[in-house]
Predict the structure.
Amino acid sequence: MSETATPFRRPDFLKVVADAEELSRAAVEEIARCARESIAARARFTLVLSGGNTPRAIYSRLAAEKKDSLAWGKTFIFFGDERHVAPDHPDSNYRMAKESLLSKVPIPPENVHRIQAELDAEEAARKYEQELSLFFGLQPGALPRFDLVLLGMGDDGHTASLFPGTRGLAELSHTVIANDGPKLNTQRITLTYPVLNNAAEIMVMVSGAGKAEILAQVLRSGDSTQFPVLGVHPKPGRLLWLADEGAARLL
Ligand code: 6PG
């Protein structure tokens, strides 16, 4: 390293915990705290769920530990993105959330706002954008403000379904779009940066030694075009990255 290079310092928004078990425990406590504070302040808690594999253990723990203590009747569930598949497809984020959480807690079905990814992707995006606008009672052009958005980070530094090199990174007018997926000729439906960055709180969860290389690259890089997860910085909201030691071992 040249003498002028400044040594890497872990960012203030990063919290590292011992292992995956500790990460799911800490994530559940953050969600429960945000729920309590949101419901105390606004009589409701709007929570955006992330997809993928990491959240499954977190959602299972949330159901097991907070089934009776979290105010599920005042909790409203949304999705940060969805694969372009039916809700019962093995790849569906909704299916994963339903199996691990939504079928295990007393949340009224009408409180769960699923992306209708069985439709044409563009139509599903338009419908979800309208559903958000209706739920939040928005004037045209106004943005939803979610109380808490959960996100993951993929092996290429994507988050939600904002993949490197896709048009979704430049989307500034729509809150929900159909975006190119990770593979050729695949599509996703995803929230966009404007609505993500309007959230009161965002928690990015990164777990496992398999993410160590990419996490180190991402946090040393600072380049949100190359690594879309870096484009998530809620203003004036709170950003927390929760990682376990396995994922943080190269930092
Ligand atoms: C998805 C997620 C995606 C995910 C990352 C990390 O639909 O897959 O929205 O953005 O959070 O790919 O996934 P893992 O947590 O499974 O590594």
Observations:
- The two ends are 15 Å apart (CA to CA).
